[in-house]
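Hi W.,

Here's what went into the run:
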Amino acid sequence: MRLIFAFVPTPTHMAFDFLSAQAAIEKAILQLELGEKPVELYEPIHYIMSLGGKRMRPMLVLLGKYAVSGSWQETVPAAIVVEMFHNFTLLHDDVMDKAPLRRGKPTVHVKWNENIALLSGDAMLVKTYEHLMNHVPATILPALLRRFCQTAIQVCEGQQMDMNFEQLKRVSMEEYLAMIRLKTAVLLGFSLEMGALLGGASSHTIDKLYEFGIQLGIGFQLKDDMLDVYGEPDKFGKQVGGDIIANKKTYLLIRALEKANAMQTRELDYWLSVESFDPQTKIDAVKEIYDQLHVQQDAENIMNQYFERGFTTLAEAGLAPERYETLYCFARSIIEREK
Amino acid sequence: MRLIFAFVPTPTHMAFDFLSAQAAIEKAILQLELGEKPVELYEPIHYIMSLGGKRMRPMLVLLGKYAVSGSWQETVPAAIVVEMFHNFTLLHDDVMDKAPLRRGKPTVHVKWNENIALLSGDAMLVKTYEHLMNHVPATILPALLRRFCQTAIQVCEGQQMDMNFEQLKRVSMEEYLAMIRLKTAVLLGFSLEMGALLGGASSHTIDKLYEFGIQLGIGFQLKDDMLDVYGEPDKFGKQVGGDIIANKKTYLLIRALEKANAMQTRELDYWLSVESFDPQTKIDAVKEIYDQLHVQQDAENIMNQYFERGFTTLAEAGLAPERYETLYCFARSIIEREK
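Here's what came out:
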């Protein structure tokens, strides 16, 4: 009898194992069967899914499920949905941004061409819906599908706002935060919500987990803004200073324009309007003003405020202490990873 | 008592009223509420939906519903789904084809720009799913959604095959017919299937109506191939000869290459490979060979075979005679309209 008991884990120790979850996500992505012919349609989808990344969104689905039910293994197939959708947006965003690199590798429209990037992205979005339908119980499907559609639309709205901002001379901090909420944060919120919904959570818990995801997402985007300028090229996998070259209205630029004196404003406006320039010279000049105005420190501060607000919200979700701890530690590990 | 009876229509005369159905479809499209901000995301969707067209696909949904249940009015909101999806594909296809005109009006990527066309198309696909979810009973939703995803993927596959064909020197008739089946016919089949499913039809009837739609769709595409070369510019609303300029592998070209003698083959190959040319000269030269080889007559013949096969399939669907008649007449009216 003792032998048998030795194999049964005690429920209080069934903690969330990050490495197992990560491995299960990677395995599910590798095993994705999307289609074969024409190869031009399916190879780009497998390609962009294989480029890696943190797989943060499916991990948040699993964590949402675990937080409310104590298990996550059976949710892995469903969790891939948010990673598929995220990669679909990357594929099309890269076309719109004319980005040459994604995670250090050629983007789909560079490796193939723009038409293939457009069409394989369309197919990928349809496959995302199909995957959702095939891996979510029928009882939850309508509610989850409705929320997924809302989230997907919000992400499109955020991307359109971001593109609009590139044409504007000035964007307010309020408009900027509204944009990154839509473009980045709602999908993280939805990922946690999806997991909680699959785990049968109360609407109070679902709402709090969603809001936790929103705060995290805004914080992560502020971090991304900083990494574009201050990140290490090898680690970052994108063009360093790409946001400066493209006149992206990031937190850093908006904050700098808020704090700049007349001369600094004139110089920033010069770089925002000049048509022909040496990229590195522009990056160095704008970065120099950022440094004079200490906007990196401001970004750090506001980013940390979002993270703290997120943890306060998480604490209100009514989770068991060790499950709160698991979600807290995961978020912290992401926050620390790229510093 | 006689007065009261006078207001009650006798059931046997509740025929399908095409004009009412058409008006109901247009009204439902006009009333579509998709979203407001950012306007760059939603205006293009309303624009392309407002460009008109035959609205053949939603009409087929209503006809499928009517054929199996005798009523169609309550199905109008759901029927719009296939028109939304169709217009989404047109929006993105026009980007891929660099088409300047759609139904005689500037295409979305010309009126706005390519990025807006890409992103508003993405949003439109998501809105299509949302619309489907909001207007289909929960009992049928999973089955219908699964078939919609399959159909949408097939349409993408067909479009990719079509793009691949542009790069090839030769395409067989078999490959061509497989391509137009996917790119055009499956959505017509699905439209009838959707209506029949909503009307609670047997799987035998659903299958026959789907197959009828497939045959019609292949016939219509053959007609479209002919209209590109032989259509009247004002009626057609697209560039006449656009397929010839773009080296599209249409039925006419493939058939001409099958029948051509050595000299005609050399001339066709010259026009297929020449990089710089006067568009009208190329159109006239290729058309001249088509005329020598009577490929328009061949296209007419095979098109009529598909229509006949479609009507045979429709006759096997087990519909009441007056309902068979209604679907037959609708198809005939479309076939005759553009001759």
